[in-house]
Specification:
The protein contains 23 helices and eleven strands. The protein has 511 residues and is of the alpha+beta class. The strands form three sheets. The protein has a five-stranded antiparallel sheet with strand order 1-2-3-6-5. The chain has a four-stranded mixed sheet with strand order 4-10-9-7. The protein has a two-stranded antiparallel sheet with strand order 8-11. It starts with a helix and ends with a helix.
């Protein structure tokens, strides 16, 4: 499904943005140069007829993303947490994508429950409300179990959502291939690997049994965390397209007015959100990877309640140590050590100069060290970071994509609660505690003990394993088959011809 027909999908994306008025908004927020504005608007205007209308009651960008489908909505959800990147007005518009999308009928949801659980919804739940939250993939209903009287949230996938997501992701794969072909310098960023990583996460999110499992594991890991709650999954009434979870009762974390009216300390909440994420990522290696405002509430006692566990991140112990050393290096302004860690982990090619890289990192860290969030332009920072990665030939690390993306989202949530939060000072105690526990002499002894146990377990097999490795190494390498580099070019040409032909036909019909 990743052939040239996806060109039409991408053309329709631009046309939809023009037709809904979103293209002008985006160009203004990005402060695009005049030449770019002219070219983009001209293309959008000529193809405007092919765009989707969307819901005219929605703001332009939200209207466009909602019309284009769930994958685009997911992208908008991430941007909604970054007012410093997209502007406060646009971030506010995009926030409705988190849990305020148009719901599908309750009767359809009940029919899905019966189909998945094998009995009518009225035989399972004594109460079953209309949708209380509707997101890009599923919607949630308040309900009460007949057998226990427990209040629960019933999550039901949208009808045909799997097929809709598949179409979007196939178009993204094609776009990544075209980008790699037209811009060889972009290959170090591994666009196709990034999309593949996103694809895997989405497919997992479309199976609610995986989410129930994630909720169970996350609750177990965090049961001793102060001021933090995770609703428990009900396995008896959960399946692939339906999940029953304990009800989370509280105020939305994104409603600052309501939080202030209830007397909650937003500064403390901002600090706790960031520290909880770092603690879960470093301590457990398992973290909530979709921590936007629509997936968290504040209980009456001030506890943060996390829910919607469709996207979870997992990082191994070695990567956690590397990540912690990089963070603590920035916090302590030890840029030479940060550079050395990058080289030791293989993030920077070995033929580059470590001192030069340390100097480049200093130029990133020093301007923002000690500043509160309101003084930092993340747009300029990310632009310079991109220049640094390009200059030193750094490739995208797919194992860190989810971690980095979630860090951006969580920081955005914290900034929305406290615009003056100092990210470094908040992160310091969590990172230092991890360093003390995992990078000292005791950690080294634990590592040696683990190694000894593994060697003892595989001891009898080690000679055979070594022999097999030597035999494999001595064999001549097999030349991999490669795809013709001209194939993407043929797709582009074919798509352009198809699109222009359609445009001419439309003019003929309209004239």
């Amino acid at each position: 499904m990743r052939g040239p027909h996806n060109i039409w999908r991408l053309i329709r994306t631009a046309a939809t943005f023009e037709r809904t008025g979103a293209l002008g908004v985006v160009l203004n927020e990005m402060d695009a140069p005049t030449s770019i504005r002219v070219v983009v608007r001209l293309f959008g205007w000529t193809m405007r007829w092919a765009g989707l209308k969307g819901d005219p009651n929605m703001p332009p960008v939200t209207r466009a993303l909602n019309a284009l489908g769930p994958a685009y909505i997911k992208f908008g959800q991430v941007l909604s947490t970054r007012p410093d990147l997209v502007g406060g007005d646009l971030a506010t518009q995009l926030r409705v994508l988190q849990d305020k999308l148009p719901p599908f009928p309750t009767d359809v949801a009940k029919a899905t429950v019966e189909e998945e659980l094998g009995k009518p919804a009225d035989d399972i739940y004594s109460e079953f409300s209309d949708a209380v939250a509707a997101a890009s993939i599923a919607q949630v209903h308040y309900a009460r179990l007949i057998n226990t009287g427990e209040e629960v949230a019933v999550k039901v996938l949208r009808p045909n959502i799997e097929r809709a997501f598949r179409k979007d992701i196939d178009a993204f794969y094609f776009a990544a291939s075209v980008i790699e072909f037209l811009s060889p310098s972009s290959r170090r960023l591994r666009p196709r690997d990034v999309i593949e990583h996103f694809d895997h996460g989405v497919m997992s999110e479309l199976d609610l049994r995986s989410e129930a499992s994630a909720a169970s594991e996350f609750a177990e890991n965090t049961k001793n965390d102060e001021k933090f709650q995770v609703p428990l999954a009900n396995w008896e009434f959960s399946s692939r397209r339906v999940m029953t979870l304990g009800w989370a009762d509280g105020l939305p974390l994104g409603d600052n007015d309501a939080l202030d009216a209830a007397g909650h300390d937003r500064v403390a909440l901002a600090k706790r959100v960031l520290q909880l994420f770092l603690s879960h990522a470093l301590r457990d290696g398992y973290f909530h990877a979709d921590m936007h405002q629509g997936n968290m509430k504040v209980a009456a006692n001030g506890d943060i309640i996390a829910y919607d566990f469709g996207i979870m991140g997992r990082i191994d112990e070695y990567t956690r140590r590397v990540y912690a050393e990089i963070l603590i290096g920035f916090i302590r302004r030890d840029y030479k050590r940060v550079a050395e860690v990058h080289f030791e982990a293989g993030y920077v090619p070995a033929d580059r100069d470590v001192d030069e890289f340390a100097s480049a990192l200093r130029a990133v860290g020093e301007p923002i060290f000690g500043m509160d969030a309101s003084q930092i332009s993340m747009g300029r920072l990310f632009h310079y970071l991109f220049e640094v990665t390009e200059r030193f030939g750094m490739e995208t690390r797919t194992e860190l994509i989810l971690l980095q993306r979630t860090m951006v989202v969580v920081e955005g949530v914290a900034r929305s609660l406290d615009p003056y939060i100092n990210i470094w000072e908040v992160a310091r105690p969590v990172v230092e505690d991890y360093i003390k526990s995992n990078l000292g002499p005791r950690a080294m002894m634990r590592d040696l003990l683990k190694t000894a146990r593994v060697l003892a377990r595989f001891g009898p097999e080690l000679p055979k394993m070594a022999e097999a490795a030597l035999i494999h190494h001595s064999q001549p390498p097999v030349k991999p088959q490669t795809t013709s580099p001209w194939r993407p070019a043929m797709y582009i040409l074919l798509g352009a011809v198809t699109a222009w032909t359609g445009f001419l036909l439309a003019l003929a019909v309209l004239s």
